[in-house]
Write a structure and sequence with these properties.
InterPro entries: P-loop_NTPase (IPR027417), Small_GTPase (IPR001806)
Largest sheet: 4 strands, mixed
Number of domains: 1
GO molecular function: GTP binding; GTPase activity
Distance between the termini: 26 Å
Number of helices: 3
Family: Belongs to the small GTPase superfamily. Rab family.
Number of strands: 4
Strand order of the largest sheet: 2-3-1-4
Keywords: GTP-binding, Nucleotide-binding
Strand content: 15-25%
Helix content: 25-40%
Structural class: alpha+beta
Pfam family, one: Ras
Shape: globular
CATH topology: Rossmann fold
CATH superfamily: P-loop containing nucleotide triphosphate hydrolases
Length: 140
């Protein structure tokens, strides 16, 4: 039976209020840009399935307003020069490339990322096994 393996990657977009985190997330997941957004209270997330080097990857993109871009850039540099991207959700500039790079880097570093299987294409049930022939006891 054929099954498909999926990898779940959680991506967090950090930044100050009103810098375009929701716009970036919507541009990546929905390929849409809007000038009309309400302030996000707490956190928000969307998911997108993508193919990365012949693997199905579910990207769970979450955003929260807690870190300035300068602090984020410094943090990335302190973590073995983790990539830092200048993007434009309005123009779609570097959006897809940024998320593809994030996914590739995460998959390259995985030691034991949780894989989960979808239901197999077919489920075969056999008629063999114990059967209850009218008694009160269960054959389980």
């Amino acid at each position: 039976m054929a099954t498909r393996n999926k990898t779940l990657l959680k991506v967090i977009i950090l930044g100050d209020t009103s810098v375009g985190k929701t716009s970036l997330m919507n541009q990546y997941v929905n390929r849409k840009f809007s000038n009309q957004y309400k302030a996000t209270i707490g956190a928000d997330f969307l998911t997108k399935e993508v193919m990365v080097d012949d693997r199905i990857v579910t990207m769970q993109v979450c955003m929260t307003n807690s870190v300035s871009s300068k602090k984020a850039q410094q943090w990335c540099q302190s973590k073995n020069n983790m990539p830092y991207f200048e993007t434009s959700a309005k123009e779609g500039k570097n959006v897809e490339q940024a998320f593809q790079t994030i996914a590739r880097n995460a998959l390259a570093q995985e030691s034991e990322v949780e894989l989960y299987n979808e239901f197999p294409d077919q489920i075969k049930l056999s008629g063999e096994g114990s059967r209850n022939n009218g008694g009160d006891s269960c054959a389980c």
